[in-house]
User: What shape does this take?
Amino acid sequence: MADQPRIRPVIENLPTYKAGKKAAGVAGLEPYKLSSNENPTQPLPAVLKVIAQAALEINRYPDPFVTELTKALAAKFNVAENFIATGTGSVGVCQQIMQAVADPGDEVIYAWRSFEAYPIITKIVGAKPVEIPLTKTGAHDLAAMLNAVTERTRLILICTPNNPTGCVVNHLELKEFLTKVPKDILVVIDEAYVEFNRDDQSVVGLDLIKEFKNVGVLRTFSKAYGLAALRVGFFIGPENVAEAVRKTAVPFGVSNIAAEAAVASLEFEEELFERVADLVELRSWFEEQLTKLGFDLPASQANFVWLPLGDRTDEFVARCADQAISVRPFSGEGVRISIGEKPALERVLNALRGFNTL
Ligand SMILES: *Cc1c(COP(=O)(O)O)cnc(C)c1O
Assistant: This one.
């Protein structure tokens, strides 16, 4: 008999989520964090005011149905409220979805490399991750994903723009794919970065929801809306799935502060999206500079870029650390750099000069 409480083997063997690191201090340099795709700007004063007001009621449990936010989202996206389910960040919602659709041994298909949270939450629910390699250019291989469908498949995740490559899936190609996926398999399109997307040929998840009864989208307030610390995201999709997602929610998971800040952010969306436009412009500039330095990188439609540095990834990450910049390394593969403050990106470019030809 073991001399300590037993943990499910799948949990014991689980790597803990590697969050983007803070930049370590370097004398004389302001540190910058470009490792978590966060919005670099502080909350709007109007949103901060709502947060301060909401804080006066934190002695009470929040509205378990997240009514006001659900209403606001239904109005914004022109769908009935029962097609919406909110949760503690879109990762929280994604976990609720898996708990709702996958039994132990069932299969969850997603592209790889993609979002770090997918394998973790798939394993937590006891399901089996089926990872389909991205193409050489960092895109989803939809044909291979379709080929991987079996009797045990319960969920297919499509991440567009994809984290960490920034590539988008083409709308017509995904539509074609969806006509071939069995109708009892849920397909979730993770649109965490959709507000940064400027490719008009790419997936419009909300249109696909209307055409296919087994399709849903995941959205978040963490990136474009700048509320990462408040943990609020949502699902829009089939009624029965939305209902199941509400059942698997942690009770009172979405705080009143998060819900009210999200409603206010929708109200001040125009101002927030001006900031998004600035980041998109900065992304173009950064990509141009990287190309000039001789780097070959996929075009990003998100608030980060992917540098496929292969074996030289760690070396580059160390160079950035010397400059008080943290980026997100994937050892042996490449590095993801968030589009944050311009001085930070300039410092990254300085760290890269000469690197390509060493
Ligand atoms: C950042 C991110 C999310 C958002 O996570 P939250 O839990 O909403 O903060 C979801 N999906 C992907 C692919 C992401 O990169």
